[in-house]
Amino acid sequence: MNKMIYLDHAATTPVHPEAAEKMFTLMKDVYGNPSSIHTPGREARRILDEARMVIAQTISANVKEIIFTSGGTESDNLAVLGAALANREKGQHIITTSFEHHAVLDACKFLEREGFDVTYLDPDINGMIHPEDVKKALRDDTILVTIMFANNEVGTIQPIKEIGAILSGHQAYFHTDAVQAYGTEKLNVNELQVDFLSASSHKINGPKGVGFLYVKSGSRLIPRQYGGEQEQKKRPGTENLVSIAGFAEAAKIAGHSLNERIAHYRHLKDSFVETFKVKGIDFFINGSLEQSVPHVLNVSFPGTDVEPLLVNLDLAGIAASSGSACTAGTLDPSHVLTAMFGKESDRVNNSVRFSFGLGNTVEQVKEAAEKTAEIVRKLLSD
Question: Cofactors per UniProt (predicted)?
Answer without folding.
Answer: pyridoxal 5'-phosphate
